[in-house]
Amino acid sequence: MSLVNKIKSAIGSDEEAGVRTYECRDCGATHDSAKTPERASCPECLSNDVTEMSS
Questions:
Q1: What is the model's pLDDT at position 7?
Q2: DSSP secondary structure string, the chain?
Q3: 41: left (phi > 0), else alpha (psi -120 to 50), else beta?
Q4: Alpha carbon distance 33, 22 (integer Å)
Q5: Distance CA 29, CA 41 (A)
Q6: Which residues of the chain have pLDDT under 50?
Q7: Measuring CA to CA, how many Å separate 5 from each of 1, 14, 44?
Q8: Strands 20-24 and 30-33
């Protein structure tokens, strides 16, 4: 079992943990984060210009 799966099983589902999917407006990369939309940033280019993607 991967570390990510171990963590997910320990804390519950993504929805319970508040994990959201974001898309960077600068480079187009997508990533998951538990940060609020105001605090989220792109791990690829470090831009703060990210938008939450709808499920």
A1: 73
A2: --HHHHHHHHH--HHHHT-EEEEETTT--EEEESS-TTT---TTT--S-EEEPP-
A3: beta
A4: 7
A5: 11
A6: none
A7: 6, 11, 22
A8: antiparallel
Residue 19's identity, in one-letter code, is V
CB neighbour list of residue 30: distance below 8 Å, 6 or more residues apart: 21, 22, 23, 24, 53
What's the rounded Cα separation, in Å, for the pair 26 and 47? 7
Tokens of 46: 């470090």
Give me the count of residues in the chain. 55
Query: Which tokens belong to 53?
Result: 């993607």
